[in-house]
Design a protein that fits this description.
Elements: H1 2-32, E1 39-40, E2 42-44, E3 55-56, E4 61-63, E5 70-74, E6 85-88, E7 91-93
Antiparallel strand pairs: 1-5, 2-4, 3-4, 5-7, 6-7
Amino acid sequence: MAMTSLLGRSSSLRTRGVSALLATTSIVLWSCQAPSVLAQRIVEKIESRCPLGYVDTLNGKCSTLGMKTHVVQAIDGRACPSGWLDVGGGYCRKP
């Protein structure tokens, strides 16, 4: 009986350790992502017009008005990365 409780304890500790590791890894990966590559309903207005699918909110930002979220990335005058679409306004969107 003592051996059974020891095996259960070891398994429980292992499960807690794996859970803690996964939680820590998730937090680190989430915090390391560039904020410009996350799905965004509101983006900063970089150029004189908003990207395709966004509306000018007249406060220096562009919004989808909650209709949709797009994964967009500011391009700063460069070409869009491979597989991304140029949607104007200084942004590229992942299809």
